[in-house]
Amino acid sequence: KKPRPDCHINPSPYRPLVAASDRLRCWYTPFTEARDQRLCNSVDSSSVNKLFNTLLASLDISTRQEYGSGLLRFAQFCDDHNIDENSRMPASEELLSIFIAERAAGLRSDSAAQNWLQGIHYWHKINGAPWYGNELLKQTLKGVRKMVPDSAKRVKRPPVTVEHMWALWRGLDLTNSFDAAVWACACTAFRGCCRLGELTVPSRNSFDATKHVARGTSIRWQTLPGNVRSVHFHIPWTKTTQHEGADISLTARGDIDPWFAMRQHLHANHNVPTTAPLFAFETSAGSWAPMVKDWFLIRCRSIWTTAGLQDVFGHSFRIGGTTEMLLEGISPEVVAAQGRWKSMAFMLYWRKIESILPLFVSRSYTHSRIQAANDGLEHFRVRNGLP
């Protein structure tokens, strides 16, 4: 496949034309050749290849693609400045810093620069090359961070709101197998503060049982005293825990009820096999199809556009679910547990801060006044010998 004009590099046997995800393994330098020869003198080449394949398997395919983008930018920079092959790996700290200053400062976000460097760093790591990124490179990145242009700054993603969810409830036909799956997926993402990628698949043929939750997963239904209903299941993979996965716990609350939505979905799509994705749905052709992320968002957006609501993104469900729990007065510790955060980093997701902060400050102030009154009453009773 012919590369785009912005992906052009000078022809070189060291950099064959391969997919971005394969550049880490297939792009090399004289340093790599010497290292491979040294390894092959000790063990056979199949064992060396096994090592490289295992190292690459530690990265998700999307991460390999991002890292490959960093290698591309670095190769273009080196080509433009006629940097010889021996100097490209191991790269000196000065070369890495000049690369970042020239190609990122005032042009890109600091996160883009860091992703490029992470790719180059991992390329060095799997080839056994020393990494010289130190104080000079750190200071260069600090400068890049202060020079990020407005065009490269990511606008905060808006949250899915209760109004969005109510619009879905009114606009979907829950007797339709696809709509029933959409509603169950939406309720799970919103009430469970989930990433949409944890519940859907990227494309029709991309289901991977090691990463995507299947319909055959163990689903536990629970009813506690007071008719508190909840549903629980395990997902095999998350962005942070990788293959340890996570347990999803959903509690029935109001009309946006994941307990009912899941029941409705499983009933409407009862012929879907257990090996299919959890939110797969039956088709009019008598077969089934997985819940593809783009299909899900297209259906949601069609309803939200008709209702005149703000357009949102996949991650907006996680943001919106978090925000709504805080607006309901649920403590941040409980919100962190619901969203499976191990720190208070989720506070970056807070939206409607003008409503959330006064809510918690007011409750804390009221609690403090009640506690002070109780303490005063206790002191009065003790001082006057009252029971």
UniProtKB/TrEMBL annotation:
Gene3D superfamilies per UniProt: 1.10.150.130, Intergrase catalytic core (1.10.443.10)
GO BP terms, alphabetized: DNA integration; DNA recombination
Top-rank taxon, per record: Eukaryota
Record has Heme as a keyword: no
GO molecular function: DNA binding
InterPro entries xref list: DNA_brk_join_enz, Integrase-like_cat_sf, Integrase_recombinase_N, Phage_Integrase-like_Recomb
Record keywords, A-Z: DNA recombination, DNA-binding
Family annotation (SUPFAM superfamilies): DNA breaking-rejoining enzymes, lambda integrase-like, N-terminal domain
Record has DNA-binding as a keyword: yes
PANTHER family hit by this protein: DNA ADENINE METHYLTRANSFERASE, PHAGE_INTEGRASE DOMAIN-CONTAINING PROTEIN
Listed name of the protein: DNA breaking-rejoining enzyme
